[in-house]
Specification:
The chain has 397 residues and is of the alpha/beta class. The chain has helices spanning 36-45, 62-71, 87-98, 146-161, 223-231, 245-255, 257-268, 281-285, 292-297, 318-324, 383-392, and strands at 2-7, 54-58, 77-81, 133-138, 141-143, 165-170, 181-184, 212-218, 235-244, 271-273, 276-278, 303-308, 312-314, 333-335, 338-341, 347-350, 355-358, 363-368, 371-376. Strand 1, helix 1 (36-45) and strand 2 form a beta-alpha-beta unit. Helix 3 packs across helix 6 and helix 3 crosses helix 7 (257-268).
């Protein structure tokens, strides 16, 4: 059994001023009519017979998450984090919860989520119900070709059952400074399609899923280093992985024993309120804060990577939104009441007033009732630093 774990924490500061602490990007309809969280949950329904999803979020956003799950006709267990301690504690409590015998492992839907992308038995994995595979994914990613993603998950099921941590590395189409990278222990990973093999997606660079050892994980690079990584065959770190719950917890106990102890205590003291699982606050807050990459994946000897080309994008910046959208003939993406004249390759978003672009190029201009952002697209990764400066000056609530 594979249980999806959706990480819905985080503040999405690089998409300020649209994304705010009270309503971060994962709860906004950035690419269509549905929010990023809803698109993630709908994608889960397209993968086949998976278990009941676990969504991890903060206390502040619990009703927002519950309503967005309910509006899709789904049911999910929603674990509430007392504090934002990064991804490792969030995944740890999800793994502990998934091992409970009373966790319902049937994805329920009242009015249905499309199931016709892959056969319903495509992602069947014969793991024990008290030690399921966890498919961990952020709630703010775009995946355009779900069939290719499903094929990669299927390829990872067997090695994950054998006790490995399976990561999914995106084959890059350009040097990107906003992503971490994975260096496989082979040159140019991926096997091109052989004659007669069916292509699982429209991308001509799609590779049949193969599994490779991980040589190392590397942090977000500067532009020159990113170019070197792409030339060396490194992969973008998608932040999506597949692992047995017991393996994840054993690795965490080995590398982060203090975190493991605090999360276990927080889990043991949990209280369930309908679909909400409220953790014991004191031990949770006493845990170290670490990303799962730093806590486990960068230190384990069990990490394997599957190269993946599926139209993936981390919608984490205004530049990424511009790249993900459908531009007009001048390369502009204009949302809301926006007028453009002699302007090219811009992202304009107005929520409450008329916005006019005249004779400009490569800009991001975002208007909300209480703030306006104007920046070059190339600077969009720096918005996070701007938001911190605003908070330090008491200017942004």
């Amino acid at each position: 059994m594979i249980i999806p774990v959706v990480l819905a924490g985080g503040s999405g500061t690089r998409l300020w001023p649209l994304s705010r602490e009270s309503c971060p990007k994962q709860f906004l309809p950035l690419l269509g009519q549905e929010t990023m969280l809803q698109e993630t949950l709908r994608r889960i329904g397209q993968l086949g017979d998976l278990g009941r999803p676990i969504v991890v979020c903060t206390e502040l956003h619990r009703f927002m998450v519950a309503e967005q799950v309910r509006s899709l006709g789904l049911k999910a267990d929603i674990i509430l984090e007392p504090a934002d301690l990064d991804t490792a504690p969030a995944v740890a409590v999800a793994a502990l919860h998934a091992r409970e015998p009373n966790h319902r492992v049937c994805l329920e839907s009242d009015h249905g989520v499309p199931q016709d992308v892959v056969p319903r038995d495509r992602l069947h994995a014969p793991a024990q119900e008290d030690d399921p595979l966890l498919l961990v994914m952020p709630s703010d990613h775009q995946i355009q070709r779900v069939a290719a993603f499903a094929a990669a998950v299927q390829a990872g099921a067997a090695p994950a059952l054998d006790g490995n941590l399976i990561t999914f590395g995106i084959t890059p189409d350009h040097p990107e400074t906003g992503y971490g990278y994975i260096k496989p222990a082979v040159e140019r990973p991926g096997r091109p399609l052989a004659a007669g093999e069916e292509k699982a997606g429209a991308d001509p660079d799609f590779f049949v899923p193969n599994v490779y050892p991980v040589a190392r994980f590397v942090e977000k690079p500067d532009a020159a280093t990113a170019r070197q990584y792409v030339e060396q065959g490194c992969l973008w770190n998608s932040g999506i992985f597949l692992v047995r719950a017991s393996v994840l917890l054993d690795q965490l106990a080995q590398f982060e024993p203090e975190m493991w102890a605090r999360m276990n205590e927080a889990h043991q003291g949990r209280i369930r309120e309908r679909d909400f699982i409220r953790l014991k606050e004191a031990p949770f807050n006493a845990s170290p804060a670490r990303s799962l990459d730093r806590a486990v994946l960068e230190r384990t000897q069990k990490a394997l990577v599957i190269p993946l080309s599926c139209g993936w994008r981390d919608v984490g910046s205004w530049a990424a939104l511009w790249e993900s959208g459908e531009a007009d003939e001048d390369g502009n993406i204009l949302l809301g009441q926006v007028v453009s004249r002699n302007s090219r390759n811009c992202y304009g978003h107005a929520t409450s007033r008329l916005l006019a672009l005249l004779g400009v190029e490569d800009l991001v201009v975002v208007e909300t009732p209480d703030a306006v952002l104007v920046t070059r697209r190339s600077c969009s990764q720096e918005v996070r630093d701007l938001v911190q400066q605003l908070k330090d000056q008491g200017l942004d609530g």
